[in-house]
Specification:
mainly alpha, three-stranded antiparallel sheet, 9 helices
Amino acid sequence: MFTRLPWIPTDEQWRALLQAAVEEPLRNRLMIALAYDAGLRREELCVLATDDLDPAHRTLRVRAETTKTRRARVVPYSAAAGVLLHGYLAHRRSITRERGVLLVSESRRNRGEPITPWTWSKVVRSLALRAGLPAFSTHTLRHLCLTDLARSGWELHHIAAFAGHRSTQTTLQYIHLSGRDLAAKLEGGMAQIHSERIAQISEALS
């Protein structure tokens, strides 16, 4: 049985998406940043509460009851997302003073109501088409995050914990390493092994 790897953008395609996202409202730009930084599922992102964020430590809590696997986790987000969050919280107070769901609608009809996963999918779809990337979806941000963690050398079980997966087999289905990525990892690993061999020879034979 063949497993099809998820599509993820190239660096050039990612830059095109970010360029298109510059035109998006602050809330949407924050959602893109948090979805990527924390590897969030669409549903996890849309139900984030104001109390789930710890700006002092730049972490957010994904509550067990909001996850697919019923596994809670605390994950970091970037300084860039922190800046967007700070601006958005000030903006959010002009929409509603209520605590609760972080990401709210700004439309007249649903002002202050939580953003739904369906609405978020529509936002990302529109953004993807403007960037010329019809394959890009809300889940692409999660796939890209986990692949980038693998590229940067994270151990598989650490990525699984970060993603909230019960099994590392699930995590493997999310990670998209190209031949170039694998070659670089092999070269780096072989260079380290070679250095260790030389050190052993030096210690034993010098």
